[in-house]
Amino acid sequence: FPTHSPYPEIPPCASLHQHPAPRPDVPQQARRGLGREKPGTGGSPGQALRTGSITVSVAVLGPRFRKLKIGAGHRLDVKASGVFGGSGPGAAHFFDNLHSLSFFQVYTVGGLFGKATDDFSDTGNLVEKTTFDHITREKLERILAVIQGTNQKALLMYSNIDMKTQEAYELAVKGLIRPMGKSPPIITAVRCIQFALPEFQLEIHCLHETQQYLRKLVHEIGLELKSSAVCTQVRRIRDGVFTVDDALPRTQWNLQSIQEAIRNCQLKVETELEKTLGHGENSPVHQLGGDMAEHARQERP
Question: Which residues are in the Pseudouridine synthase II N-terminal domain (predicted)?
Answer without folding.
Answer: 66-210
